[in-house]
Amino acid sequence: MRQLLLPLQQWFGASSDANVMPRLAQQRSKMMEYDQPLVWVTVILMLFGMVMVYSASISLPDSPKYANYKNHHFLMRQCIFVVVSLLAGLFVFRIRISTWQKLAPYLFVITLILLVAVLVPGVGKGVNGAKRWLSFKGFNLQPSELMKLFMVLYAADYTVRKQEYMHKLTKGFFPMLAAVGLVGLLLLLEPDLGAFGVIVCIAMGILFLGGINGVWFGGIAATLVGMFSLVIILSPWRRERIFAYLNPWVEENALGKAYQLSHSLIAFGRGELFGVGLGASVEKLHYLPEAHTDFLLAVIGEELGFVGVMVVVFLFYWLIKRAFEIGRQAIVLDATFAGLAAKGIGIWIGVQAFINMGVNLGLLPTKGLTLPLMSYGGSGVLLNCVGLAILLRIDYENRVLMRGGRA
């Protein structure tokens, strides 16, 4: 029998060792596994964020604004957000990428309608002078968070459909410019310049990766920078924020437009290398506004120091790098939409994390953007988790294709 099997083993390039077939079966089964490190990094960021949200919000009930809240109010809500987000991620992971490609234009249009609904009096909910939420029983929905995800899918689908026109300005770029311009107009009316900036980076990044003409891309990027500058110049309160950002330690600025920034920098200064200890932050004691949302990184810097901040930076770096690796692999396998979508998710998470960290560290002017996966908020955590579930699905389909199966 061994002599009969030997030619067959040689034909398939296998060794005569009896343990080869079990080893091959084990190697093939590993190809079918999901990307466990990607899942663990996502879960670690959410759990780490939950701990820091609790630390940053535990003293809020001492303020008259939150007098009716319990100390663990924000922790319990964040726990619910994380559990719901993980369940949503499990559901989304089961949806094929081809289905997302078919639905992308419709999801984009539906989200546009929601952005319009936010601006309708009596429908949109305003907080601190900005109308960015739709209020439902038990939860608030922020359509701009939906638009970040669906812009990734729409831009990837658009690039695939218009691949032959990517080097033509009128047929390749102008339709996408009109779509992004409409989204930008609605977001500026809220106003939400930060979300608009992220969405522009997503759309431009995917078009660039999709093969748009490099000269036009540079010219368009310069035009967009000019438009953002014009928006800031023509808006008195945005102009004041920029001047305050440039010199936050002047008394007028430190007590006014640069109040958050100055206290964020104080928090980082107090943290030094290893921090003052978990829960021992002073700035979260009603000195630093929105410590559990936009300025969560400042609390991390104060309590866990430079080391804690670098851990967060490294986890996001790994996540973004992995997204681009998955996208590159999908494109090699001729799954262009999946590849562009994976890279778009990496751009989305990377740009938003960079802006939030830059604002906290005083590298960028103050913007109302949360730290992905970590800051308090239902819409943000849910959509981040859904986006990463789609990324996980893309990687899963890559593995199936590499094994010779069908996605």
List the keywords.
single chain, 407 residues, mainly alpha, three-stranded antiparallel sheet, 15 helices, 3 strands
What coarse outline follows from CA principal-axis ratios? Answer: globular
C-alpha termini separation: 38 Å
Mean pLDDT: 85
Order of helices and strands: HHHHHEEEHHHHHHHHHH
**Strand element count:** 3
Query: Which strand order does the major sheet show?
Result: 1-2-3
* Proportion of beta-strand residues: under 5%
- Strand-pairing-aware structural class: mainly alpha
Radius of gyration, in angstroms, nearest whole number:
24 Å
Number of helices: 15
Portion of residues in helices?
55-70%
Query: Which ranges are low-confidence, i.e. pLDDT below 50, for 5 or more consecutive residues?
Result: 1-22, 24-29
Task: Summarize the biggest pleated sheet.
Answer: 3 strands, antiparallel
Give a short summary of the structure.
The chain has 407 residues and is mainly α. 69% of the residues lie in helices and 3% in strands.
Could you describe the 3D structure shown?
The chain has 407 residues and is mainly alpha-helical. 69% of the residues lie in helices and 3% in strands. It has 15 helices and three strands. The protein has helices spanning 2-11, 20-31, 36-57, 73-93, 97-118, 143-161, 169-189, 193-209, 214-234, 236-246, 251-254, 259-271, 296-332, 336-360, 378-403; strands spanning 124-127, 130-136, 139-141. A three-stranded antiparallel beta sheet has the order 1-2-3. Helix 3 (36-57) packs antiparallel against helix 13 (296-332), helix 6 (143-161) runs parallel beside helix 8 and helix 6 runs antiparallel to helix 14.
